[in-house]
């Protein structure tokens, strides 16, 4: 019993002692942090020490198949504290160091560098930035072996300050959709929309204030390490994006247009595989300067593409058949104090309901809508709401800068007797291209609305922490009977109507042309137009939907069928050719010899890529005996064999004939700084293949 009491007494003593110590620690923390906090902060300021933010490495943005669309490259600012270097070391190495700096940066002579460092040493400057040009990690490793620098920060005074710089490997392709974030925290696109996830958590490092108001880091490490940002994987397909970019750019140049946009979406999933936005910066030159696909500058009267919604509302609320007729007269019709002109001079006369949409008759559609909804305009607006056309895009897609749709209702103070007929043909409203595409995509998806999807996953170190999937409406936007009639009319637009010039012999297309007259600053319509085409393909089993908008084309061609529709067809044909799923309903009977004959003999490819494609086409392939990763085709009678494309170490690789993706992979993995122009495959390269390779050298590749 006495032993037990003795043990309990000791435990109580230890507990009391620990409690007292813990209390003293808490009291001292409170004393230092709050009571004496201001004093010690003043002391730190007086001696020039301060915690400063250390930016976290920003997360990467990837395409659907893993291509890097945006990344942060670690670069370094080179500086020196010349007062640290001993006299003997300084005398022995300063001349050589000055020459090396001059040869590397090529901005000053060796003597200028010598005088610059000597002056700083004499004036006892403890922080001298040697060049405003940032250097790469490989440059840092090389410089760390230079005279004086090889002694490190403590002995040689050298300091490499790490700075993250945002890089976009594919240049202008998808540039506005990817977006940016500036120093003030403002930005656009995915970069700002997912800034919270991409930015990570900043760290802190101790800096010392020195003469001249500069702040010098005490060491290269950070006291509170930053946490890397998450990566995001988008739905963008870089090949589709590149294709749409080039086709739109060609059309803009051809028509000397103001700007344009293209969106390509997968019908069932709502995944956006391409979103292109190009604005004219000078004659013949266009760049991604604004997101016209979703923003205010691209949202205005949609024109005739809106007639499909009007026709859908009519068919839902009436017993009209496609064969019923409407008199459109001689090309003009008066509504109160305004006259509506039809799409053909002299008019269309009496036409069917089906022809009203196929021929895009303004008078035909507006008279049908006015006749039926004239005394119940609210009902018409209710249908537009049901079709998803009044829903703000921000509820559909997480992307900053989305424009809110503006569609009038009878309670709007600008509503008048002419509002309904003009609305029915796509005027007196503001709707973005993505809003219109979402509606047409629902038609292609058997009447079910699918929310557009631009980001598939958020990842941390390769592991998915958040996955986004298609959100589909529980109810269709219209009846099955109405849907079939609408599909029939949209196919008729291509077979007999305003877009018969884009009819394809390989697959069926359904869609609608649009041409809207623009307003000036005084609210008057002028002879400037916005042209568009929106649709889906193959019409009998839709895989993709797409919208093409080209604003203010110049010259003779001023209509959607002549300007925007051909771009749609070019994109559709390219996607049809490359996508095996799209062709699944057609029997692909290709003779092996025919396929082999068409193989480009000098085109270099990654074996795994071409093997996957040929396997889908049921064509036998034989890999080179040495297991080479990069190969050229060598067609044989019963199979395709491959010759190795050798890439020798320490020599400049030959990337002619490669895709941009493969060329970047090979060159950048060998430490070369790559710059490129054009689109397609590599045509020329500035460094001779087989010449000695110097890490960090610049190489320019021309694509065709």
Structure description:
The structure is a single chain. 34% of the residues lie in helices and 23% in strands. It is α+β, with helices and mostly antiparallel strands. It folds into five domains: 2-47; 52-233, Penicillin-binding protein 2a (Domain 2); 239-578, Beta-lactamase (3-Layer(aba) Sandwich), CATH 3.40.710.10; 592-644, no CATH class; 660-703, no CATH class. Strands 2, 3, 4, 5, 10, 20 and 21 form a seven-stranded mixed beta sheet that branches. A six-stranded antiparallel beta sheet has the order 13-12-11-24-23-22, sandwiched between helices. Strands 25-27-28-26 form a four-stranded mixed beta sheet. Helix 10 packs antiparallel against helix 19 (565-578), helix 11 (307-317) runs parallel beside helix 13 and helix 11 runs antiparallel to helix 17 (480-495).
Summarize the structure.
With 704 residues, this protein is of the alpha+beta class. It folds into five domains: 2-47; 52-233, Penicillin-binding protein 2a (Domain 2) (Alpha-Beta Complex); 239-578, Beta-lactamase (3-Layer(aba) Sandwich); 592-644, no CATH class; 660-703, no CATH class.
Write the layout of secondary structure elements.
Blueprint: H1 2-35, H2 37-46, E1 49-54, E2 61-62, E3 68-80, H3 87-105, H4 110-122, E4 128-129, H5 137-143, H6 152-156, E5 158-167, H7 175-178, E6 180-181, E7 187-188, H8 189-193, H9 195-199, E8 203-209, E9 215-217, E10 231-234, H10 238-255, E11 259-266, E12 272-282, E13 285-287, H11 307-317, E14 325-327, E15 332-335, E16 338-341, E17 350-352, H12 353-358, H13 362-373, H14 377-386, E18 406-407, H15 419-424, E19 429-430, H16 433-444, E20 455-460, E21 463-467, H17 480-495, E22 510-519, E23 525-537, E24 544-551, H18 560-563, H19 565-578, H20 592-597, E25 605-606, H21 607-616, E26 621-622, E27 630-635, E28 640-644, H22 660-668, E29 673-677, E30 682-685, E31 698-703
Parallel strand pairs: 2-10, 26-28, 29-31
Antiparallel strand pairs: 1-8, 2-3, 3-4, 3-5, 6-7, 8-9, 10-20, 11-12, 11-24, 12-13, 14-17, 15-16, 18-19, 20-21, 22-23, 23-24, 25-27, 27-28, 30-31
Helix pairs in contact: 1-2, 3-4, 10-19, 11-13, 11-17
């Amino acid at each position: 019993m006495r032993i037990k009491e003795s043990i309990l007494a000791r435990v109580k003593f230890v507990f009391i002692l620990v409690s007292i110590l813990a209390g003293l620690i808490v009291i001292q923390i409170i004393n230092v942090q709050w009571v004496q906090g201001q004093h010690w902060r003043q002391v730190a300021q007086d001696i020039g020490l301060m915690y400063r933010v250390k930016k976290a490495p920003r997360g990467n943005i990837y395409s659907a198949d893993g291509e890097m669309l945006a990344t942060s490259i670690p670069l370094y600012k080179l500086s020196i504290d010349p007062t640290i270097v001993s006299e003997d070391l300084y005398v022995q190495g300063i001349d050589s160091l000055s020459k090396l700096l001059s040869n590397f940066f090529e901005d000053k002579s060796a003597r200028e560098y010598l005088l610059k460092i000597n002056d700083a040493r004499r004036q006892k400057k403890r922080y001298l930035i040697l060049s405003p040009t940032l250097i790469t990690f490989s440059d840092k490793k090389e410089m760390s072996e230079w005279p004086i620098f090889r002694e490190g920060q403590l002995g040689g005074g050298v300091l490499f300050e790490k700075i993250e710089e945002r890089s976009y490997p594919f240049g202008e392709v998808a540039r506005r959709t990817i977006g940016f974030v500036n120093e003030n925290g403002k930005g656009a696109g995915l970069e700002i929309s997912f800034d919270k996830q991409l930015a990570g958590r900043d760290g802190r490092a101790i800096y010392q204030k020195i003469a001249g108001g500069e702040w010098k880091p005490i060491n290269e490490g950070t006291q509170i390490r930053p946490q890397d940002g998450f990566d995001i994987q988008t739905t963008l397909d870089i090949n589709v994006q590149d294709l749409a970019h080039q086709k739109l750019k060609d059309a803009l140049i051809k028509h000397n247009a103001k700007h344009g946009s293209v969106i390509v979406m997968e019908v069932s999933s709502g995944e956006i595989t391409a979103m292109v936005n190009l604005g004219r910066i000078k004659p013949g030159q266009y760049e991604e300067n604004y997101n016209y696909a979703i923003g205010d500058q691209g949202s205005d009267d949609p024109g005739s593409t809106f007639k499909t919604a009007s026709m859908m509302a009519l068919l839902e609320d009436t017993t009209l058949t496609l064969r019923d007729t409407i008199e459109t007269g001689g090309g003009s019709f008066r509504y109160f104090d305004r006259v509506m002109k039809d799409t053909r001079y002299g008019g269309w006369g009496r036409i069917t309901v089906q022809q009203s949409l196929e021929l895009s008759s303004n008078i035909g559609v507006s008279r049908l809508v006015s006749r039926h909804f004239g005394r119940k305009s609210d009902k018409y607006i209710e249908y537009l709401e049901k079709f998803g056309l009044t829903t703000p895009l921000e509820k559909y897609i997480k992307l900053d800068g989305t424009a809110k749709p503006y569609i009038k209702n009878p309670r709007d103070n600008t509503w008048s007797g002419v509002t309904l007929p003009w609305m029915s043909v796509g005027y007196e409203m503001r709707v973005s291209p993505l809003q219109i595409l979402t509606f047409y995509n629902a038609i292609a998806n058997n009447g079910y609305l699918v929310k557009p999807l631009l980001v598939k996953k958020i990842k941390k170190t390769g592991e998915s922490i958040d996955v986004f999937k298609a959100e589909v409406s529980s109810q269709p936007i219209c009846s099955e009977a109405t849907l079939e009639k609408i599909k029939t009319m949209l196919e008729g637009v291509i077979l007999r109507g305003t877009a018969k010039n884009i009819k394809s012999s390989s697959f069926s297309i359904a869609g609608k042309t649009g041409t809207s007259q623009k307003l000036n600053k005084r609210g008057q319509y002028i002879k400037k137009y916005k042209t568009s085409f929106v649709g889906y393909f193959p019409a009998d089993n839709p895989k993709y939907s797409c919208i093409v908008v080209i604003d203010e084309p110049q010259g003779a061609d001023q209509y959607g069928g002549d300007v925007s529709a051909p771009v749609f067809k070019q994109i559709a044909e390219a996607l049809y050719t490359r996508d095996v799923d799209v062709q699944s309903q057609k029997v692909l009977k290709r003779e092996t010899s025919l396929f082999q004959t068409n193989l480009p003999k000098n085109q270099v490819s990654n074996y795994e890529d071409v093997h996957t494609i040929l396997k889908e086409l049921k064509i036998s392939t034989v890999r080179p005996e040495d297991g080479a990763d990069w190969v050229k085709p060598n067609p044989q009678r019963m199979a395709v064999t491959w010759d190795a494309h050798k890439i020798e170490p320490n020599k400049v690789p030959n990337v002619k004939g490669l895709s941009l993706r493969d060329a970047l992979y090979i060159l950048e993995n060998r430490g070369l700084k790559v710059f490129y122009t054009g689109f397609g495959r590599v045509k020329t390269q500035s460094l001779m293949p087989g010449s000695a390779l110097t890490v960090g050298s610049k190489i320019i590749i021309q694509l065709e």
